[in-house]
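Hi! If you just cloned this repository, the fastest way to understand the data is to look at a raw example. We've pasted two of them here, unedited. The first protein comes first, obviously.
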Amino acid sequence: MERRSRRDIRGAFQPVGAFRRFSPTLAISMLVLASSPAFANYSCQGKIHQLSVDPGGNVVVGAVGSGLSWVYLCNVSTTANSITPESCRGVLTTLLTASASGSDVVFWFNDSLTCTTHPSWAQLTGWYFGPTIENG
């Protein structure tokens, strides 16, 4: 068996010792990760108070009772927000039906926002399902 010098032995255990030393970079990284918002599934439900299609074909929801305000959903003439024009026309039909009948609609999301913190006048982010019409 080969005999190792003291220096070789310390070198073999270097990684363990590295964790004992204070590292500002590691501390900041851990703090940022700990304070990062968690992504969560949530839904926003309410009545459609305002609905529009702008001259560019964007379907814009002015207000859903749950707090969504003036968000761009999709476009009836080009793919936008990963939604084809055909699907967008279906979304628009669903929203018009809910608005005309006074029913609630529900949108489902998976992001770090809430119903009231989605930015106005921007594409709706984190949206993965809906709208659905809730009767009753």
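Ok, and the second one:
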Amino acid sequence: MSILQYNNINLSVNNSYILAESITVSESNTPKPIYSFNNNIPFDNTPTTLKGQISISYYLKPDNGIWTPIYNNALDNQLVALSWQIPCPSFSIGFPTPDPANQVLTLQGAPDILYSVNLLFRGIIENALYSGGIIIPNTSSLMRSGCSYIPDGHNIYALIISNPSQVYYLNNAYPAESGSTLIARYSTTVNINGGSTMILSGSTVNGGEAPNANQLSINALPGEPPIIPIVQPFTGQFLQMDATGSSHGILYTNEPNFSILTELINDTTISEPSIINIGQIYITGYLNNLDLQLSPNGLIKSTCSFDVFYPFTGNLSKQLSTDPVLYDTLNSSGLAHYWAAQFYSGSNIISDNNILQLSYSAQIGITPIYGIGSPYPKQIYTNGITESLDVLTENQFNINYTGANINQIRPDLQILTFSGISSTGTITIPMSGFLLKDSKFDVSLDNIILYNNSYTRSR
């Protein structure tokens, strides 16, 4: 185990990487002794059914959370400079000019990794009119997204990203076209998933362009990457894109367990297995518990556990520090310190029930069915789910009898949401069917009166 260094083992559930704090894996297959009359020692041993358990404690991160990894990011080595050139017959003649070939780069890495890449654009270009969308700040108004080209014969220059799908136009004219070439030098940051493509494209639209009549030149400033080898002043136009740095984070779709729980709640007759990958050991498990803990000024933390009925496969191995999908937890600047939870009545926020602290858990009953002749289950099904909800608020609930339904005590508390910790931005829990288990309050000096309400619901 000495070669398996901390932070060099990735963990995924159903191909979604998560930030694990700790992982515990256990297997049990206790032999059962078989005795006979007149023998005080077993004459044979029969193994019981194989049963394993996986427990994982992990952190969640907000949708916009990006942090810088400790290791040098392998993405930086992939992002070579992309450039194209459109020469003109002379400094005064702009026809005919061919379209340059698209410059394409495909990033390595897992689609669950979202890279935040700093890009530097430099060149001699003409600008064109686009409508709609937004102008990207700090780009001299040259970069625009979500817009449409206004056909007037001027060239179209664009950066096309496949995932998340986005088109950035790189020669926006604002407030009006220059009518001649200009020097472009600006930088911005874009997001791109591993495995996606980046295309730097240029189109002359009508087979011509504005020649570099003023014989403009551009050189690299101190600290910038070098300009591509090109004779300057150049007769026509060229554009170069360099990556000057990157960071990465795990996408929020990487919280896979709540979606599994949601499916089970909606249909308790199903029991879909999960594939857990722990340092290249692959385990088939069935989710039996999920807990979420939300507290002020603390990380959003979750724990889950799985029942295992089948053998493990693979060998534990560490990952190289240059692996593009390697993540680490030493820099916490992107972890989920920030969350919001709120009760709703329909689409209206309940304003008199501020949530100060919250924990949610679900216990899932997993039952295997065995048959003669095999140590593995013939069928596995879910036999019930019990949810628990513990909420710290400033609002008192008076319990009139044991197991009072929340719909009877506060019929307006219809939905509970927590924002910032899901791929859609919000996790929603309908309150219908929750029973108020107990209500407590605490009074102390220099503090508000706090009420702790606990709920339970079985399906």
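That's it. A detail worth noticing about the second one: The chain is about 5% helix and 45% strand.
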